[in-house]
Amino acid sequence: MASSEVTRRAALLRTQIADYDYWYYVKDLPRVPDAEYDKLFRELQALEAQYPELLTSDSPTQRVGGKPLDMFQPVRHAIPMLSIRTETDISDQGAITFDARVRRELDLNENDPPIEYICELKFDGLAINLRYEQGRLVQAATRGDGETGEDVTQNVRTIHQIPLSLEGMCPNILEVRGEVYMARPDFERYNERQRELGLPTLVNPRNGAAGSIRQLDPALAARRPLKFFAYGLGEKVEGWDWRKTHKEVLKQLDAWGFPVNDECRVVQGAQGLVEFHRRIEAMRDRLPFDIDGVVYKVNSIALQERLGFVSREPRWAVAHKFPAEEQLTVVRDIEIQV
Ligand code: NAD
After folding, report:
1. Which of 11, 24, 142, 293 could disulfide-link to 321, CB 3.0 to 4.6 Å?
2. Is 59 annotated as a binding residue?
3. Which position among 27, 122, 227, 251 bears the catalytic label?
4. Helix (H, G, I), strand (E, B) or coil at 2
5. How high is the mean pLDDT of the chain?
6. Angle at Cα 58 formed by Cα 97 and Cα 151, nearest 5°?
7. Which domain of life is it from (predicted)?
């Protein structure tokens, strides 16, 4: 039974996190560094795990992203756009814990071979679902609260890297998921020009990407230098039996003309995850775009299906951050520039 002090602490955390979520997801303006946010989020998760009676249905731990803005048409996702669990331990142990959990959930023991994973970068932008019908882009939607996003098709059409029609054979209905982002050099050039013109600058590349996609004038969006990485599928693609591994999905996305980041690697077992994490951490500052960690996914689609989901997260994927992210800066008390 939770003491009144613990109950009060959980209530305070819920309110505080909900407020940070609003500023981050709705306004695209973080009030605190991610590391600080993650610490509070994990504290609330731990309290709820220890005292299940404290878990309320409106707890931020049970939600994905933020409320869609009213100014856009709502889009109900055919398949929810979920969150990814963040591994609490940012050291190598985070990868080892994830692998151990997956093996346990699949009932494997030490004599079974290592699990094959695909490791990707966790791009720090805005998640988008692109819907193609008969090979043509018909709709682009934000993640929103996971169930319902915002129709941002007009703005997304201005991103040159997103194909408006697909090359080669493709299913009648195809949903592609990925991240819209602003590359660092583009962000700096854009701000430099804005300063020269005496116009407002963007706060950071993530704010630049999210703010550009979620604003009403497509002409303004077209002036912002946005890019895209595809990393998965939305609505199930019927009759396409190439979909045995996530790696094959990425290859097919590449063949259709979507940008797929080439740092992704297929690795074996926990050791492979650890090596990927270390390699990306060492090169992270040299990447031309921001990442907020790496993502590990079980490569086999059949195993992904066996593992399934728990509340708002798949059991077959995890985000693993880097210690240096504690240093991230955050701008407080600024105007919203959209
Ligand atoms: P998430 O942790 O729920 O992860 C899912 C998201 O990851 C997807 O929607 C997608 O946008 C993104 N992603 C990037 N690369 C991907 C890849 N290769 N494969 C799959 N997905 C990929 O995502 P979130 O809600 O964007 O972020 C949660 C994090 O945001 C928190 O851990 C926290 O650090 C940060 N946050 C910060 C504040 C703040 O105030 N600073 C507030 C809210 C959230």
Report:
1. 293
2. no
3. 122
4. coil
5. 90
6. 90
7. Bacteria
Say yes or no to pLDDT of 235 above 60.
yes
276 burial (CB, 10 Å; 0-12 / 13-18 / 19+) is: buried
* pTM of the predicted structure, to 2 decimals: 0.90
> If you write DSSP's letter for every residue of 149-214 in order, what string do you get?
EEB-HHHHTT-TTS-SB--S---SEEEEEEEEE--HHHHHHHHHHHHHTT-PPPSSHHHHHHHHHT
Q: Provide the token pair at 182.
A: 């602003």
Q: Supply 129's token pair.
A: 């679902």
Measured distance CA(99)–CA(276) in Å, rounded: 14
Catalytic status, residue 122:
yes
- List pLDDT tens digits, range 142-194: 999 999 999 999 999 999 999 999 988 888 899 999 999 999 999 999 999 99
Q: How confident is the model at residue 89 (pLDDT cuts 50, 70, 90)?
A: confident
Q: 269 — phi, psi (to 5°)?
A: 65, -175
Asked whether the ipTM of the predicted complex exceeds the cut of 0.85, the reply is yes
Report all structural domains of the chain as residue ranges with CATH numbers, in order of start. 4-63 (1.10.287.610), 76-327 (3.30.470.30)
Q: What is the rounded distance in angstroms from the CA atom of residue 166 to the CA atom of residue 258?
A: 9
pLDDT digits (tens, 9 = 90+) for 260-302: 999 999 999 999 999 999 999 999 999 999 999 999 999 999 9
Q: How many CA atoms lie within 13 A of 155 on its CB side?
A: 26
Task: Tell me, in angstroms, the distance from the centre of ligand 1 to residue 112's CA.
Answer: 32
**Banded model confidence at residue 29, pLDDT cuts 50, 70, 90:** confident
